[in-house]
Every structure is written in C-alpha cells, then in structure tokens.
Amino acid sequence: MRVALAGLATSHPYTDARTLTRHAELVVWEQDPERLRRFTDEHPGAKVAGSLDEALSTGPDGVVLTVPNPQVPEALARVLETGVPCFVNKPAAASRAQLDALDRLEIHERVLSSSVLRFAPAFAGIRIDPAELLAVRATVRHDVGIWDTGYNAWQDTPGEGGGTMVTMGVHGVELLVALLGPDVRLAGAAGARRHYTNLRSEDTAVMALQWGSGVTGTVEILGVSEGESYTLTLHRRDGSETIVIESGDDPLKGLGYEGTIDAFLSMLAGAPSPVPWEQTRAILEVLVRARESA
Fold it and tell me: Which domain of life is it from (predicted)?
C-alpha cells in the first residue's frame, strides 16, 4: 500500500506519518526544503516527489493533504481527479473565499477532514440525547506561543490560516457538532490578545452557538496554556457531566491521531468517510463566520 503525504505545512503530517509508516510505503511532497529535510531525516525510506502532480503520479492508494489553507481548494481538486481517498488535515478552510472555492468542488464520500479529537478514545463512541441537554461547552487549551515568534505566520494570519479562532477553535466546534449534528449556527464570537502581543490574530477567543433543537453551546479557546487539554461539559437539569481529552502516556492514541489514521486506512479499504462532508461543511461555516465576526 502507498500513501502520499501532499504537503507538510503543519505538525500534523509528521505525526500522521509515524502511524502510517507501519502500514504503507510513503511518498512525500513539500514546498519548503527545511520542512522536507526534517521529514526525510525521520523517514529516510520515504520517496520524495518534486511536485504534487509527481506525488499523485506514483499511484497512491490514498492522500494526506496538508498545504497552507489558501492552497487547499486547488490541491484538493487535483487529488479529487484521481478518485483516491483523501484526508485533509484541519481546518480545510479558514476564510469565506476558501470555503466558497471548496463549495465548487465535487467532494466524494471518501474525503475526510476532521479534528483528530473526534477519534480520541475518551470521546469516540459517546452518544447523547439532545432532548436531555440544556447547554454544552467545549474548552480548548492549546498554547499558540510558537506563532508569537513568527513561526508559520500564515496560520496566525486571519485571512490565510484563520488564526487562533479557527485553527484551535476547530477542535471545540468539531466535538460539539460530532455530538449534536450539523444543524448549528454561530450566535456570536470575540477574541483578544491577552499575552502574546506579537500575534496577528488572538490568543484567547469565545464562540456562542445554537442548534436547531434549541440547545446552546459555547466554545472557549485558551491559546495561553501550560498544558494541552480539551474539555467538554454537558449541562443537564440534574447536573453536569465533564469529559476530558488529554494526551496521557501515548499522545498518538490519547489525542486521536491513531484513531484518525485507522479511519483513513478503512477508507483506503473502500469504506466511506466516517465524518459526512455535511458535518465538516457546517463546522467550517461556523469557523468562517466566527472569523468574520471577530
């Protein structure tokens, strides 16, 4: 089996490769020589392609796509032409123009784009009855201090990668939509720089959501944090339930990276994406509206 890693624009494909290398031959393409060198130092057996077209011409059984957000629509269109399964590392869009471009593509049932947290053992398999809920809250703790140094500035730029609101907010919105479905709208959003003064975006943010069922939700994004964790709080009349997702002793397993790749490998075997595009589109709409609002 062969998997093409098309782009290494974030940390995620490096992590994905540590699981994929146990199952498949890797082909890698990346525009930045330093990022490519880091990858090949860890995976010297990977075949290096000089372009996206060259990577796709090797006949991969699947593609993991991780390019800067402004490049996603064009790159995904080329992957879609091959018909092979594709995992688009989150978020697939960070601006209205990017989302409009995705809407013009014919995205088939073996395209997956998701926060890895959906597949974390602490969360996967949870089912709730929305009729029992009063409200929900997702709290994202993920430090963004590396952007304060200028690293991957495109991610921190609102019109390109979406900044903290989008890049970290996707984790909270993903979990809530996974629980309550895609019939959701943004009620409001706000962000602020509380610590990292060199950021182009914010380091803290909040979103207010509402589902068609009437359930309200809040996503808190704390980009100034000594630890990484993700907390869901489910409020019912008789009390509140808390679900915590943490890395634990094995971050690949605890944070859902392995589960995500397992889902991707199932797609390579013929299964549809476990996350319907309808849900992904709803998540992206919330994130883009939040970015526009903030």
Answer: Bacteria
Measured distance CA(202)–CA(157) in Å, rounded? 10
Q: Which amino acid is at 292?
A: E
CA separation, residue 146 to residues 90, 94, 224, 268 (Å) = 18, 19, 11, 34
The two structure tokens encoding residue 77 = 């269109």
> What confidence score (pLDDT) does residue 125 get?
87
pTM: 0.96
User: pLDDT digits over 189-207, tens only?
Assistant: 999 999 999 999 999 999 9
**What is the domain range of residue 251?**
118-255+277-293
- Check: CB of residue 75 under 8 Å from CB of residue 52: yes
User: Among 60, 93, 115, where does a domain finish?
Assistant: 115
- Which residue type, as a one-letter code, is found at position 203? D
Sheet holding 62-65, edge to edge: 47-48, 25-29, 2-6, 62-65, 86-89, 111-114
- Evaluate whether residue 265 is within a structural domain: no
Please work out, in degrees rounded to the nearest 5, the angle formed at the alpha carbon of residue 165 by the alpha carbons of 163 and 166.
75
Nearest to residue 70, comparing CAs of 106, 105, 100? Answer: 100
